Structures are given as structure tokens and as C-alpha cells.
Description:
Chains A, B: Keywords: Glycoprotein, Hydrolase, Protease, Signal. The structure is a homodimer. By secondary structure, chain A is an alpha/beta fold.
Amino acid sequence: xxxxxxxxxxxxxxxxFVAPPTAYSLQRSSRSVPAFxxxxxxxxxxxxxxxxxxxxxxxxxxQRLDHFSFAxxxxxxxxxxxxxxxxxxxxxxxxIFFYCGNEGDIEWFAANTGLxxxxxxxxxxxxxxxxxxxxxxxxxxxSREEAYKNASTLAYLTSEQALADFAVLITELKxxxxxxxxxxxxxxxxxxxMLATWMRLKYPHLSIGALAASAPILQFENIVSPDTFYxxxxxxxxxxxxxxxxxxxxxxxxxxSLGMTNTGLSLLSKTFHLxxxxxxxxxxxxxxxxxxxxxxxxxxxxxADFLMPLPGNPIKEVCRRMDSLPNGTNILQRIFEGISxxxxxTGTVNCFSLxxxxxxxxxxxxxxxxxxxxxxxxxxxxxxFPAFEYDYKSDEEYCYKSYHVTPRPTWITTEFGGHDIxxxxxxxxxxxxxxxxxxxxxxxxxxxxNISDTIVALVTERGxxxxxxxxxxxxxxxxxxxxxxxxxxxxxxxxxxxLESKRVNFLPLQSV
Amino acid sequence: xxxxxxxxxxxxxxxxFVAPPTAYSLQRSSRSVPAFxxxxxxxxxxxxxxxxxxxxxxxxxxQRLDHFSFAxxxxxxxxxxxxxxxxxxxxxxxxIFFYCGNEGDIEWFAANTGLxxxxxxxxxxxxxxxxxxxxxxxxxxxSREEAYKNASTLAYLTSEQALADFAVLITELKxxxxxxxxxxxxxxxxxxxMLATWMRLKYPHLSIGALAASAPILQFENIVSPDTFYxxxxxxxxxxxxxxxxxxxxxxxxxxSLGMTNTGLSLLSKTFHLxxxxxxxxxxxxxxxxxxxxxxxxxxxxxADFLMPLPGNPIKEVCRRMDSLPNGTNILQRIFEGISxxxxxTGTVNCFSLxxxxxxxxxxxxxxxxxxxxxxxxxxxxxxFPAFEYDYKSDEEYCYKSYHVTPRPTWITTEFGGHDIxxxxxxxxxxxxxxxxxxxxxxxxxxxxNISDTIVALVTERGxxxxxxxxxxxxxxxxxxxxxxxxxxxxxxxxxxxLESKRVNFLPLQSV
Lengths: 512, 512
């Protein structure tokens, strides 16, 4: 870590004593909270794609842009990955494993969802990874530039349309393979897990069960408290180290106060090794906020490279580094040291760019401005983040300013339910596994209790964001091995019951 | 009945002996088969609306035109009828009876669905009759003319959008009445019954059960044989009188042969008392075909005025009139005598106009050209109608020619299921009554067997098209009284179980 010039240090120390902890009111909104995926994550390059151990064909399927109207719109090509290597075919009623592709390049999800590939030979399953419209190569209007041009071209980026894409694709692929009777098992993680759940609810005739990992289907409207997410992140840090928690908690005021001085932004830029000059202290806060939140999501027990290359138990490592600096080290240096675990664990980054998406139009940002209205807040008593209340109005303004679109904050619950989930899911749903790790900040908006005999929650205390979907490793702790074994057992049960019911149907009628 | 000039009679008699029964191939397609509702039915006038014994308020609700995209489209006003006269309110968790409005003016359905009104006081229920978009007053783009202008304005007339209208309306009305916990019971007849079923499947969190009367949810793709409809109509006539069945069966050749002669169309126009000159014999065939089919739908055991004012057991009356003409009466006179039961039972019609919809654009015609692709055929061995095979291509051509739209024949089953209905509905559905009468030609495409403990079929041998939904009368036969009693019992059961589950939830937790 570069050392700071003496004048900077003095200024920092001065601020540390001068700035009152609540000297300003931070202007925040849910808009700045992290999405499921990190915008800094490294998308798969050809090299990365080539490095995956999984073999598949890449195919394309023509889809309607609006399944629910007959408006004359151009169709688009949906990409999907398919492997029939282990499939035992229609005569055996062999299953089809269908991953509900979420907000990113499908090859990235295929590479990071080892479980599906590892289970395929065991079940004699076909594997399909369809890409979500408006992500990866599955662009309407011919290109990302056209698809993301404005609200009128982005209009069809909705979860209902994505589900209908899946429904049409499943139906057509089964028809083409004469596999109409082969059972489909859905998989999905995070938003993909929400889609898998919703597929079970909206298209129950097209699958027999779903593994929905880390799927916060209840993080809408007023179903769960909006401060859930940040409370979980904060608890994860406090659990590792109270001083680490306090350092982070106190850092926001220091940053914001410094941001208000003449030379403060320049000083912050230097302290955090930014490639360019900081435009506002808030940009830095958001960058730090993201890191803490993603650290909580990726707080896996062994080194992994999901959102970023990280060590095992990365929060422990962040806190170890922060805490182990000598007494008297200034707070921002501690923060920088900690945050480097997230942004620069490989040590190869010379400087940091806070915004690698200068146009600001990302698919998830659009979705979060239309349907995916997940209220977020930070509670001053329990959170290490700056306190803020959920402010729908400011989100609405942001969305109108950005896209000329007005969000529909009550739509997802109208369309998919969510209030009184036990009665609803318990009455009409079946065969869903909600797997969650309590370290995952999204677990607060997910289903953590069994709802019926067939809608079960597998909750792991030390799990983070859908670790269970990843490939098995030699380092897997016992609880993870057990969790996956439970999942396999449940899926086996669904398949056996389905096959039994079919065998009954296959019997010739004795008499009518 | 006017007598025919001698020369005409001679020509007719000649044709009767000369024309071989299968001398021509009738160009027919599913397009000419009847929809659920008769295009000749009398829509409610203000007088009719005013005459209904049911009291309600008329209100309007602003809806999105495309619920599943964020395209910038003009909202429209959905009309709905509401009565809270008997509602016992949220504190009693009193139910909401919600009729899923179908392809017509909602006041007409409200006037013809007495059952809902009669059950409301018994259950302390609120009653809501929402109108289906693009029908009655619920016109997008401000007027029927604009809404029906072309495929781009009609694009949003789909069942999924109608269901979403219902979902949003239910959610908002419940919120406004603080009635979130009040159970909703859905009702629907015919296409409205299909909508009620699909509401249970797609929005199970918004209702606790549905009475789906005469809802042919299986009349799609290759689920049931396409000749089902015409076989049932034919059987209904044969059951009453074999000679009547034969007269009708033989009449088509006579009509078509006559239509091919120089003076034949003029002769047919006179024989059938048409107001204008017939343009083709096929127009007459379609007009007759419609009458037979609607007679089967409305073959109620007592006089009713649903599609048309008709006597009790109208098919019996048609056959009685046809058969009772003296020996030697020519076949077309018999047909005219019979058909007059349907088109002119009141005896007030001086001449008949075959097409009261000169623009041809009706809402159901659009729906039948887009999603509602119900294959129809007529089997030469079992049907009294001219034989024809299901020909999707000709339907497709008609639709493209009429609207520049291409139908999606496999979409409804992809979206709502239907193949393997027992497994699908039995696994994921609950609380649906499929009521059907076997005289109804649509019963062949409906659910006629119990699927589970809570998805039950109430089948009546002598019932026609959703007679059970009509108001009770002194003439109701026992089987109809019994059928309604079974419906009430089932609905009571749903409500009791719901209330019980809520009472459990209302108990304070003893410990956590």
C-alpha cells in the first residue's frame, strides 16, 4: 500500500476528531444498493469460456418479443447451451435439467453452476442453459446498442417475457426430441432462482420441480423489512470482528466530511488509489458499499472466483487486515486495506476505476426500474452502513430521469404472489427447494421455512449466495456436502414419484 | 310459411333426385364454426339493462394496455359492476364473488348469471362483474372504431392480458376495501369459465376457488378430437328424431347443388325468407350450421332467453316441426320450418339478414385468429353436418387476409397446459368445479372427470351450455337443483377451510 504524504495524514487525523459522526445527512436511495451480480464482475471472455470443463453445443431459438400481445415486433434469437451427452432419452423418460438463465451471459452461469453438470450423468439428464433475453448474445433488435437504446426498445425486458421464452423453448425442444413425457427439473440461482420458482408457479405443467437457490422472492413491497439486507451484511462483519464493524461504521462520516472540503476529493482519490479524480464522495461510498455487500454474498468457506477472485472466508480476511494495522493507522487506510481484499485480491490492480459502465444502462438497472422494485433501507441501530430510509419517490425520479419509465412497485406481488406465502405456496405449489445460506444478505428475502411436504427450505448457517450450485471441490465443508446430498435426494424423490405415476398411466387398461 | 311457386318446387324435387349426395366438396374451415356467443344475439340495450332484477354500481378502473411490457401505450378504462349490498366486510372475512367477464358486454353476463347474485346474500358476499377488455365499454384507444381498427390496435386483446386486468383489479379493490384477507371465489361460463380456470392456475394467490361452467379448456391443439363438437350437436338431434337428423344431413347437398344453378341462389333466398339476395350457398349453410350449434348449446329444459328467445327443449321443438310437415313437403321447407324455431321463435321476424356484422371484425373473431385456435372438424360417419377435416392452413390464410396476423396454434397449451391435464391439474391445482351438461357441444372439450379431491367435475346428462349459472326458476328440474346444491356445498367447503386456516393464523404465537 502506498504511503500518504504527511500533509494528507494530518488532514485525515484532523477530520477524525473534528467531524461529528452525524454531521450530514447522506442522500441515498435503494438505487445505489447492489444488485445480485456485481457490475465489476469479469464477464466470460472466450478464454474463460474455453476453460470451462463442461461440454455443450451453442444453439439459437427464434422467440417472439412480446408473447402476450400480437403486436408486430421483430423476433429475436435466444441463445441456449445444450448437452445431450448423458441423456438417456425419451424411452427411459430421462429428465431434462433446465437452468433458468438470469441477468448475464449464459456461459458465465453455465461455468459457475457446476452442480447441474455434475448431476447430469447421475440422472442420465439432458442439460439446457437458456440465456435470458437482453443479456449475453440474446439481444432483440439485432444488437445491444439497439436493444438498450431507450425505454421503447427495452420495454420487453421483463421477467414474464423471460418465463414465456423458457416455456416456449421447453415445449419446442421436447416436441423436437419426442420427449414430451420427459420430466423437467428447473435450476436457478439468485434472480435465476426467482425465475425457477415462478416457472413452477406459472408453468407447473412444464416441470416437475425446481431447485431455487438464494432466491429472494419475498424482497418486494412490504413483505420483509427493507433493512434486512444491510442488517445481514452488517452482522456478518460484526460476527468476525466488532472493531472491523465499527471501523466501517465510522468511515462514512469521515469520507463524506472529507468530500466536502476543497482538497478532500483529491485526497480520497489518492488514498483509494483511484485511476481518476473522484467526482463526489458518494461515488466512493457506493463503491465501498458494493464491496461489503458482495463480500457478504461471496463469503464462501474456501477460495472462489464467482464475482471476484477471493480467499476463503473473505470477510474474515477483510477484518483481519483492517484490524492488524498498527494502532494509530488512520481509518481510511484501514478501509482501503480491507477493501483491497475484494477489489484487488490478486494484487494485480494498479488503480481502481469506480465506474466501468459509463453509459449506466445495464439490464438489471432497467429491471430494477420497472418490476424488480426491492425496497432497501439501512437501520441506524443495527447497520454498519449509513442510515437511510426506503424512499420510493426518489427511485421513481431516478428511473424517470434515466429511462422515462415509471416503476410498478406492486406488480411483482400481484403477478406472482408473495404476501401470505405459506397459504399460497402451500395450497397451490409443489416440489420446490429453497436453498439459502444465512450469510447471504439476500436470504432475508427468501423462504427459510418448510411450507409443505414438497416445498422445503434447506438453510445453512455458514452458507453464502448459492454456493450449493457451484461444482463440488475437495475443500467443501461437511455442511455443504450434506446440503447437496439433501437436494439430490429430493430431486430423486420427485423423479421417482413422477416415473411411478407414469408407469401407472402406461399400464394397459384392464376394463373400462 | 310462404308457399313456393310451382316451378321452384319442380326444380327442388328434381335436384332431390339428381344431385348425388357427395357431388361436391364443401370448402369449409373451422373459421365458420360457431363461437361461444351468437353473433346474432341481442346485446343488452338500456331497457334490457334496466330490466335486470340485480342492483349494482357501474365503475371504471384504469388499466395498462400491456401488462407484460413497459411499452408506452395509452391506458384504458375497464368497466366493472359492483355490489356491496350483502357484503359482510373484512372483519368477517366475507367473500368476494368475482365473475370473469368474457367476450361481450358485461351487463349482459350480469343479467344472465343469476346464480352469483342469488348466492351473494347467502354468503354475505361482495359481487364484482368486470368487463373483458375490447368488449362492451372497455375499449382501449377511446372507442370501438379505434380499438378494432387493425391488428396493431387489436394486438392487446388476449386472454393473458384479460387475466392480468382481473389480477390488478382484484388486488386494488381488496386493498382499497382493506379486504386483503377476504377470500375471492371466481365464476365464469364458457370462455369466462376458461378464464376462471386459468385465473386459478396463473393467479392462485388471488382466489380460493372457481366455478368454471362449460369451460372447454381442452378444445385446443390435439387434446380432444376435432370432431367432438359437431358429433355432440348431431347426437342431440338424432336423440330427438332420426328423421330430423337425416333431413338436416341431406339438406346440405340440396342447398349447395341449388346454389350452383342459375336461379338457385334466388330460390334459396326466397325459401329462407332472406331480406337480401344470397351471395353464395355457403353463407346460407353457415347460417343454418350456426343455428343447429346454438340450439345444442341452448337446449335448456324450459323456455329461456339466453342467445335467443327459445322454447323449452328447443331441439325437440325443431324436430317436431320438421317431422310434422306432411309427407312430400320438400326438404328445404322442412329445414326452414325447423330453423325458424331458432331465428324466429317469437314470430316477429319478417325476413332474415344473414350478416349483421358487415365489417366482420368481432372481438371473438380476432381472438380465434390469434390464440383461441380450437380445431374443428365434421366426421362423415357420425355428423349431420357436411364432412370437413380440420385445416389449419386455411384458417391461417383467413386470419392473415383478415387481420394480417398469424395465429399461434400451440400457444394456449404452452401457456396454460392442457395435455396430460390429470397429472398437471392434479398436482398443482385446487378448488375448481368444472360443471358441464352433456347436451352442450362444448362439453367435449371440457373436464368431465374428477381430477382430485378438490378439482371436481359436475356433469349433468340433460344440461346444456352453463344452465347452472342462470337464475333459479320454478321450472328448474331436479337435476339442476341438485347440481346447484352441489356447487354451493363445495364453495361452502372452500370458504370454511379458508376461514379455519385463517383462524389458526390469527392465534397469537405461544412461543417462538
